[in-house]
Amino acid sequence: MLRFDFLKPKFIKFLFLRGSTKDCRLYNQKRERIGVIMSSIDLTINGNLHPLADVDPAMPLLWALRDELGLTGTKYSCGVGVCGTCVVLMNGQAVRSCILPVRAASTAEITTIEGLSKDGTHPVQEAWIEEDVSQCGYCQGGQILSAVAFLEQNPQPDENSIRQSMATNLCRCGTYPRILKAIQLAAGKKTVS
Amino acid sequence: MKPITHSRRDFLKATGLSASGLILGFPLQIQAASQPGDLPFEPNAFIAISPETGITLTIPVPEVGQNTRTALAMILADELGADLQAVNLHQAGPRNDVGQQMAGASAGLKRAYPVLRIAAASAREMLITGVAKHWNVNPDRCHTDNSQVFGPDGQSMSFIEAAAYGGNQSVPNAPTLKLASDFKYIGQDIRILDAQEIGMGKTQFAVDALPEGVRFAVLLRCPVLGGKLLEFDAAAAGKMRGVVDILQVGDKVAVTATNTWIAMEAAKRVRAQWDEGEYASESTKGILARQKAALDNPAETRVAQGDFESAFATAPIQLEQEFSGPFLCHSPMEPPNCTAWFHKDRVEIWTGCQSLNGLYEALPEYTGLPHERIACHQLRIGGGFGRKLDHDFIIEALEIAKLVDYPVKLMFTKEDDIRHSVYRAADRYRYRVGMDLNGYPLALQEINCQRARSWRDSAFTRYFKHAERKFTRLDLPLVTGPLRGPHDNVSCFTQHSMIDAMADRAGIDPLDFRLALLGDQKVFRLLGWAEPPAEDPVMANLVRIIRDRSNWKGDPSYGYGIAYFEKNQSKVAVAALAPKAGGSRPIEKVFVALHCGRIVNPLSARAQMESGVIDGLAAALYQRIDVQDGRVIQKNYQDYPMLAMPECPEIDIFLSPSEAEPKGLGETAYPPTMPATISALADATGRRTTDMPVFG
Ligand code: FES
Ligand code: FES
Questions:
Q1: Which residues does chain B have within 8 Å of residue A142's beta carbon, measured at their own beta carbons?
Q2: Which of A11, A39, B83, B219 is most exposed by smallest CB count within 10 Å?
């Protein structure tokens, strides 16, 4: 649900600065905000409704999750859609929340890493533990969700298609060999069950 | 070195835990210089066993993904007789009473291993003594297992219960350590204990600290090192909704906002004018010219052995070659960040810092407050690689936080991270080498453009009777500092490239040539050398292992490259295989053989090897930081690439068994992977890269 909420006059403490480099705060001036249209947006995340008031609909979903809602499992790294750290599921598809405007997420079911399973027993999460994938762990939420979405579409992938599908999920610690094994393991488990 | 029972109050204060039971503090670092009796009281990690804490181990060392937490828990569990899954881990912040608190130099586990064993063995003996008294049985006939004390007649008592009896026993002088054959965990593949939390997105990284009322900040910094802020116009930025403050902080401008995105967007709209200062005309090209000039006229001779000039002048074969490595930055996935909150008379800090000792000492200066008024929370680090040894991001967060009355989270955008890093210094090496007609090394001169380290650190100079080392320390337009295997990650490439050049000129296979250098009897005799230039049987053995496992030069469709590296007594040999037909992976297979004493957790040792190899490949193939007009050009992963999964090679790892004390391993595989990669590509294509990276 997207409601426009035209420019509620709202004063926030605001410092306007111009001038010499000596002072820290030059003067403090209250001004009316102009410019963007702020909205109220309802997000459905991990099955729960989260109303967001006074939000710029162009803001990427990542920051709504992390800074507004405190769902910090989704991580920031590149901010331009090239690393995959910030991946969430939108209606089951892997999307990069750092470049997805929050308005585009408003009508969708969003799943973050916190909501993938109640107790960490999603087959992909289990495979990740089994193969001892994590090092620092920072990229792993995005890796796991990307793998989940990929396996949904490709239940029995070959090695090459796994490698290609994960090509833009970077891991600075270099956990790729184990990510590969974990995805293969999760795929195998799926076919068995 | 003796564990010390901590006063319960101290411990509770120190850790924020509440407990009534057995509490043991112990120094995690043995100070070689002091007499045991003189050691100051320096408890470094704590074991607490009580109903409130369960079995808790306080981890002094920052966790950056090297998995020290799991290894320390394994050591504790084994010596104590605890069930590993029952060990709780508590991460320590910066302190002055816990010895070494650095995640760097691959040193965490090496230092901790002997001390933690003694401490845990002491705790075990105290539990047994206390409970044996209670049961009225001979303590020698009791033992521990599965977090319980067992008596001679089938009695048993959980550690938690036993702690009430063990807690007031005296600390044994020389507790008996377990035999390696009795270890349940050490030496086994144990999965990272934090895995489930990480996989559920529950783990708190530094960047996840969100104190009540936090505002989000980014900083606008002069793109040129040392530049001064002249003036700035924040009018456009200030109009954005959600912007809270726009502040001048020294020569930087801080924007705080209700979320990070608004702060980032607003910062883009701040117009700043800089006096760019002395580095404004620096460029990669200019640096190269200065390097060349420095190599022609080195300012200092660091060390010399024998008489290089005359030995070189008379050598039948003379070689001269140059090799270089660019600036690199660490670019951890979690960019540098810090949250700080000045309350009225105290400050609270949340961060992920790799060097907590230095941080502890510096915090009063950074904050203007005494230690009692500083609370610093250390959280898990989303990758460091040396970047977070520096405190710049903590200092900056504090500077902003001092000006406002709310908590501030300073975030480096990825662009900030890449453009305002602490870079691996670009360096250039020139070699002059003299050999006899059999390829026997006679004379070496090594000149470079950074401070040269001592002979002791060089694996190369030991092969030459006549050698000298010269350098000029160039002033560089970027801040430089350690990156994974500091100092060595350029020289390992340059030295092994030179070794390859020598082998090539002498017509000797590069692997055989290295075996001869290292004193392999069969090989150096075969080459007609009277004596080996050096004797390093352990390294020679690793090279032979690599030869066999890689089926060295056995498949004509591959180019082969080899290198080795030694750091803090850990030795590693690496071979890379490059498909001659090309394809999606420049390097298809990598073979690693590691010798680093007893390996506490082989599963995580392998992870560290994989990590070093993948990182080394990215450095050899793609990564470079360039300077133009004094500024770093690269800005994100598109132009400062990481290796990605499609290019990831198969990695075969051999861990050589050893009974010796564990040594560090986190930095070992990274440096030699670069020369091995470049040699393999040279062998496959006939073209050798002398200036890293290959593609760039
Ligand atoms: S942070 Fe979104 S793709 Fe990198
Ligand atoms: S585990 Fe550290 S970035 Fe992937």
A1: none
A2: A11
On whether the CB atoms of residues B590 and B676 are closer than 8 A, the answer is yes
Residue B651 contacts A, CB cutoff 8 Å? yes
B207 touches chain A (CB under 8 A): yes
**CATH classification for the domain delimited by B206-277+331-419, as one of 3.30.365.10, 3.40.50.300, 3.40.50.1010, 3.30.70.100:** 3.30.365.10
- A7 Cβ contact partners less than 8 Å away, ≥ 6 residues apart: A33, A34, A37, A38
Q: Is A137 in the pocket of ligand 2 (CB under 6 A)?
A: yes
Ligand 2: does its nearest atom lie under 6 Å from the Cβ of A169?
no
- The Cα–Cα gap between A94 and A110 comes to 10
Give the pairing of strands B215-220 and B408-411. parallel
- The tens digit of pLDDT for each residue in B494-515 reads 999 999 999 999 999 999 999 9
B381 near A CB under 8 A: yes
Contact B645 A78 (CB under 8 A): no
B453 to chain A, closest Cα gap in Å: 28
Does ligand 2 come within 6 angstroms of the Cβ of A132?
Answer: no
- Give the amino acid at A85: T
Residue contact B199–A140, C-beta within 8 A: yes
Q: What is the dihedral of CA B248, B252, B258, B264, to 10 degrees?
A: 140
User: Is the domain covering B13-192 a CATH 3.30.365.10 domain?
Assistant: yes
Please write the tens of the pLDDT for every residue from A85-113. 999 999 999 999 999 999 999 989 999 99
pTM of this structure: 0.92
Residue ranges of B 614-633 with Cβ closer than 8 A to chain A: 614-615
Residue B337 backbone dihedrals phi, psi, to 5 degrees: -160, 160
Tell me the pLDDT band of B173, cut-offs 50, 70 and 90: confident
Amino acid at B140: D
Q: Radius of gyration (Cα) for chain B, nearest Å? A: 28
- CATH 3.30.365.10 residue ranges in chain B? 13-192, 206-277+331-419, 507-696
| Domains with residue ranges and CATH for chain A | 38-115 (3.10.20.30), 123-186 (1.10.150.120)
Question: Is residue B114 within 8 Å of B74, Cβ to Cβ?
Answer: no
How far is residue B317's CA from residue A134's CA, in Å, rounded to a whole number? 50
Q: Are B446 and B452 in contact (CB under 8 A)?
A: yes
Predicted ipTM of the assembly = 0.94
- The mean-pLDDT minimum among A19-28, A66-75, B232-241 falls in A19-28
Q: Which two tokens stand for residue B681?
A: 């590509």
Measured CA to CA, the distance from residue A146 to residue A95 in angstroms comes to 8
**Nearest bound ligand to CA A171?**
2
At B93, the amino acid letter reads: G
What the block records as the tokens of B627 is 């300077």
Asked if pLDDT for residue B113 goes beyond 90, the answer is no
| Per-window interface: B 159-198 vs A, CB < 8 A | 189, 191-192, 194-196, 198
- What is the nearest CA distance from A53 to chain B, expressed in angstroms? 12
Going by C-alpha positions, the residue among B332, B397, B390 that lies closest to residue B358 is B390
Question: Which pLDDT value is given to residue A36?
Answer: 62
Distance between CA atoms of B538 and B528, rounded to whole angstroms?
23
SS3 B652: strand
Closest Cα of chain A to B636: distance in Å? Answer: 7
**Residues with Cβ < 8 Å from A186, sequence gap 6 or more?**
A123, A124, A126, A127, A147, A151
